[in-house]
Write a structure and sequence with these properties.
Number of helices: 10
CATH class of the largest domain: Alpha Beta
CATH topology of the largest domain: Aminopeptidase
Number of strands: 16
Strand content: 15-25%
CATH architecture of the largest domain: 3-Layer(aba) Sandwich
Strand order of the largest sheet: 1-2-6-3-7-15
CATH superfamily of the largest domain: Zn peptidases
Order of helices and strands: HHHEEEEEHEHEEEHEEHEEHEHEEH
C-alpha cells in the first residue's frame, strides 16, 4: 500500500474524525463516580460493529467503584482477517477527570474554535480513541483483506487506577502476551513522540497522633496537627533536597520530572467544623496526610518507602510525644519498553514518513494503563502514542488540535499496516 494513498484516505475522513471526537466528548464520563460508561462504550461498539468488528461488553464486577448505578462497562471490538497475522490492539480509556473551575467554554460541548476541539477528554484521551478508529477504518477500506487481527478496547477507570478496566481485561486473559502481539495506547504524548513507559508511583497515608483536650487548654493535650507540621518541616529540609538530587536515564518529560518527586495530595486534621462552620474547641488527636511519590527506574521501591520511614523514625527519636502510622495505598513499578521493540519501531518509522522527522522517545511522568499490560498481561511490546499535548491533560480549556488528530491517525494507520504485515 502506498503511504500517500493511506494518508489521503484519512485526510478525506477529517470531518468524520471531528464528529466522532465530539460525540465521545459530549458523553460526560466523569470518574469518580463513573458516569455514563455504558453509553460511551456502546457508542464505540455500535460504530465498530457496523464496520465488521465482533464485540464484547465486559462489566468489571466487584472492582473498586463498580455498582448497578455505576457499572464498570468496557467494550472490546475485534476484527479477524482472512489471513493469519499479528494482533494489533488499540486501548483507550473512556473516563475523564472532574471538570474543575476556570473554563471559558462548556467542557462537554466539544466546541470547535481556531482549529481545535475544546472539552474535557479531548486530549486525554477521546481524541486518541477516535483517531485509532479512523486509522483502522481507513486501512480496511483500502485493503479489505488486511491480514492479522485488529482490536480496540474502550476501558473504564484509568484515571482511578485502571482496576475496573485494563487490569480486569488482563486478568480475564483478553489483553496478555498470549492473546495480543502489539499494543498502542493513544494517550496525549504529542504527535511526534513515542512514549515507552512511565515512572513508578507510591501512594501512602501518614497519620500522626495526639491527645484530645479542651481548645482553651492545649497544654493538657497534644496536637497531632503540630506533629504533622514537624513532618512537613522535615520534608522541606531533608526529604525534598534528597529527592532533587536523584536523576534518571529515562527520557522523562517534562524536564522537572526527570528527578524523583513527592506531592502532598491532601491534609486532614482535627475535628470537623460544626453548625455554621464554627470550630470544635478541641485539640486534634489525629492528622492524616496523603502523599504521592513518583520514582525512577533506578530506585528500588523498598528504598523509596525506606526514605519516608527513616524520616518519620528520626522524628520519633527527636520529638517528644511523636507517634505515627504509615499505610500503603497504591504502588506501581516503573516500566519502559525497549525502543527497538516492534511496535516502537513501527510507530517511529510512521512518524518519519508522515512528519518527515525523527521522533522523540519519551517516558511519561505519571502512570497509565501500560502498567497493567506489563505487570498482569506480561506483554512488553506496548507503547503510548496519540494526539494531544500532555500538559493540557486535566486542565481547564483542554483541547486537541484537529490537524493533530488527522496526523496521528495517519501515523497509527501506517504503523498498523507494517505490524499486521509482519514488517515491524
Amino acid at each position: 500500500m502506498n503511504p500517500d494513498q493511506l494518508k489521503a484516505r484519512i485526510e478525506s475522513k477529517r470531518d468524520d474524525l471531528i464528529d466522532l471526537t465530539q460525540r465521545l466528548v459530549r458523553i460526560p464520563t466523569i470518574n469518580p463516580p463513573g458516569d455514563f460508561y455504558t453509553p460511551c462504550a456502546e457508542l464505540l461498539g455500535d460504530r465498530l460493529r457496523a464496520r465488521g468488528f465482533e464485540l464484547k461488553y465486559i462489566r468489571a464486577t466487584n472492582t473498586p467503584g463498580d455498582s448497578d448505578r455505576y457499572p464498570r462497562t468496557n467494550v472490546v471490538a475485534r476484527r479477524t482477517g482472512k489471513k493469519a497475522g499479528p494482533v494489533v490492539h488499540f486501548n483507550g480509556h473512556i473516563d475523564v477527570v472532574e471538570v474543575g473551575s476556570g473554563w471559558s467554554v462548556d467542557p462537554f460541548a466539544a466546541e470547535i474554535k481556531d482549529g481545535r476541539i475544546y472539552g474535557r477528554g479531548t486530549a486525554d484521551m477521546k481524541g486518541g480513541i477516535a483517531a485509532a478508529i479512523i486509522a483502522m477504518e481507513a486501512l480496511l477500506e483500502l485493503e479489505p483483506d488486511l491480514p492479522g487481527t485488529l482490536e480496540l478496547s474502550g476501558t473504564a477507570d484509568e484515571e482511578s487506577g485502571g482496576y475496573g478496566g485494563v487490569a480486569y481485561l488482563c486478568e480475564q486473559g483478553l489483553l496478555t502476551r498470549d492473546t495480543v502481539d502489539h499494543v498502542i495506547i493513544p494517550e496525549p504524548l504529542n504527535k511526534d513522540r513515542v512514549c515507552l513507559g512511565h515512572r513508578g508511583v507510591w501512594w501512602a497515608e501518614i497519620e500522626t497522633f495526639g491527645r484530645i483536650a479542651h481548645g482553651s487548654m492545649p497544654c493538657l493535650g497534644d496536637s497531632a496537627i503540630r506533629h504533622m507540621g514537624a513532618v512537613l518541616g522535615a520534608m522541606e529540609t531533608t526529604l525534598y533536597p534528597q529527592l532533587a538530587r536523584k536523576t534518571t536515564a529515562m527520557p522523562v518529560v517534562p524536564d522537572g520530572a526527570k528527578q524523583s518527586t513527592l506531592n502532598i495530595n491532601s491534609l486532614h486534621g482535627g475535628q470537623g467544623e460544626g453548625h455554621d462552620g464554627l470550630p470544635a474547641p478541641v485539640v486534634a488527636d489525629s492528622c492524616r496526610m496523603i502523599i504521592d511519590r513518583r520514582f525512577l527506574i533506578e530506585e528500588p521501591l523498598d528504598t523509596v518507602k525506606g526514605e519516608v520511614r527513616e524520616m518519620l523514625e528520626s522524628l520519633t527519636g527527636s520529638r517528644t510525644g511523636f507517634r505515627y502510622a504509615l499505610r500503603d495505598l497504591f504502588e506501581v513499578h516503573p516500566t519502559m519498553t525497549n525502543k527497538d521493540a516492534p511496535v516502537a519501531r513501527s510507530v517511529a518509522e510512521a512518524i518519519r514518513t508522515v512528519l518527515g522527522r525523527d521522533p522523540d522517545y519519551v517516558v511519561s511522568p505519571g502512570t497509565y494503563d501500560q502498567k497493567h499490560i506489563d505487570r498482569i498481561g506480561r506483554l512488553h511490546n506496548c507503547i503510548a502514542y496519540g494526539p494531544g499535548i500532555l500538559d493540557l491533560a486535566h486542565t481547564p480549556d483542554e483541547y486537541v488540535g484537529i490537524d493533530d488528530l488527522v496526523t496521528s491517525a495517519q501515523v497509527m494507520a501506517l504503523a498498523t499496516y507494517q505490524l499486521v504485515h509482519g514488517h515491524g
